[in-house]
Design goal:
It is built from 7 helices and 6 strands; from the N terminus they run αααβββαβαβαβα. By secondary structure, the protein is of the alpha/beta class. The protein folds into 2 domains: about 1-70, no CATH class; about 90-235, 3-Layer(aba) Sandwich (Rossmann fold). The strands form 2 sheets. Strands 4-1-5-6 form a 4-stranded parallel sheet, sandwiched between helices. Helix 1 crosses helix 2 (about 50-70), helix 2 (about 50-70) runs antiparallel to helix 3 (about 75-95) and helix 3 packs across helix 6 (about 175-185). Bound molecules: iron/sulfur cluster. It comes from Methanocalculus taiwanensis. Keywords: Membrane, Transmembrane, Transmembrane helix. Pfam families: DUF116.
Length: about 240
């Protein structure tokens, strides 16, 4: 009986030590990751993205807390996480032909006087020239993309179920893009995110050069129209 108690006590002590060691290891590695994130944000470069991403999937909440403690703004961190996802998905995205890709644009990009009607596949742009979508969408369609102007994320799921794109580009505010990328990672859909240049619910803006930088990934440059400066084509 004495020996059994002794063995039991030793096992409990060992378990406690292992738990403490694992907890300390996770805290230490989270601090290292947070420093790595901070350095990446400040320098504009991505350090060890292949290491950061899986770790962040497991420990995102904790790393976020440490990032806050070391002075990284939540918005900066979100932008970083989106950049990280984009970097990790770029190779797979490039390998998928444009006719198997889809672009989802938020309806807030259109003009407040937009005459487009809502259809089961989102808003149908009539190219009235009141906003930049009228010039941008045909350029993307010319490359082979399916393009949707959507009033909410439920449309993404519906259109993905209907058209089965192998890759998508989601445009939206920071939080929308972050959540969209997470959803795509969960369902195994290759996704790239582009954050709008101006937030809000009405007449937001996207940097079309940023968007076309993503749209044209993996496409033969000979097939890409000249500089896609859609704002130059906009009628007011
Ligand atoms: S160009 Fe803009 S405002 Fe005009 S129909 Fe298309 S989305 Fe609406």
């Amino acid at each position: 009986m004495f020996f059994e108690d002794e063995i039991w006590n030793r096992m409990m002590i060992l378990l406690g030590e292992v738990t403490l060691f694992v907890a300390l290891f996770l805290i230490l590695i989270s601090i290292v990751m947070a420093i790595l994130i901070g350095t990446s944000i400040r320098s504009g470069r991505l350090f060890f993205p292949a290491l950061l991403r899986p770790f962040l999937v497991l420990m995102e909440g904790f790393v976020k807390s440490i990032c806050t403690l070391i002075g990284i703004e939540p918005g900066e961190l979100l932008r970083f996480l989106i950049r990280l996802d984009n970097r990790m998905n770029t190779q797979s995205f490039a390998a998928i032909p444009p006719n198997e890709r889809a672009v989802f644009l938020p309806q807030c990009l259109r003009s407040a006087q937009c005459p487009a009607h809502l259809t089961p596949e989102g808003l149908r742009c009539v190219g009235c020239g009141r906003c930049e979508l009228g010039a941008g969408i045909p350029r993307m369609k010319a490359l082979g993309y399916h393009v949707f102007i959507i009033p909410g994320s439920t449309f993404i799921k519906r259109m993905v179920q209907k058209y089965h794109p192998k890759a998508i580009i989601g445009v939206g505010c920071l939080m929308e893009v972050k959540e969209g990328l997470e959803m795509c990672n969960r369902i195994g859909l290759v996704a790239m995110g582009v954050v709008t240049a101006k937030d809000g619910c009405v007449e937001t803006l996207v940097d079309w050069h940023d968007l076309f930088d993503v749209v044209t990934i993996g496409i033969d440059p000979a097939l890409i129209p000249d500089n896609p400066d859609v704002s130059a084509n906009q009628c007011s």
